[in-house]
Amino acid sequence: MKRKTKVDSGASVTIRDGRIVVSGPLTFQTVPPLVSQASTWLQQDDSEFTVDLSGVSRADSAGVALLLEWWQTLHAAQRRLTYTGVPGQVETFIRINGLDSTLLK
């Protein structure tokens, strides 16, 4: 199954067989639509998800909050989420907020 969602401000998410590919900026402007749309992606029957962030052009604290929300949602359902291709800026935000042991495993 492949589905692509593009948010007006340039963020897009493509889903392929449990793999989520995020592209564009993850900012206060782009995150809110992704939060509401993610509920359908996160309810798929897959027990394990991989999110590829290598296409993320920039992020702010809202982007990191989105990544944490996705992780918490799946963790609460005893499902696994792995982030790959984490850009340096996003990794820095994650580490500054003390979330590296959770989000960067």
Walk me through what this model shows:
The protein has 105 residues and is of the alpha/beta class. The chain has one domain: STAS domain (Transcription Regulator spoIIAA). It is 39% helix and 33% strand. The protein has helices at 31-42, 61-76, 88-96, 100-103, and strands spanning 2-6, 12-16, 19-26, 48-59, 80-84. A hairpin with a 5-residue loop joins β1 and β2 (12-16).
Key traits:
105 residues; alpha/beta; Transcription Regulator spoIIAA; 5-stranded mixed beta sheet; globular
Task: Summarize the helices and strands and which ones pair or pack.
Elements: E1 2-6, E2 12-16, E3 19-26, H1 31-42, E4 48-59, H2 61-76, E5 80-84, H3 88-96, H4 100-103
Parallel strand pairs: 3-4, 4-5
Antiparallel strand pairs: 1-2, 2-3
Instruction: Bin the helical content.
Output: 25-40%
Q: In percent, how much strand structure appears in the residues?
A: 25-35%
CATH H-level superfamily: STAS domain
CATH structural architecture: 2-Layer Sandwich
The number of helical segments is 4
Coarse shape: globular
Write a short abstract of this structure.
By secondary structure, the chain is an alpha/beta fold. It has 4 helices and 5 strands; from the N terminus they run βββαβαβαα.
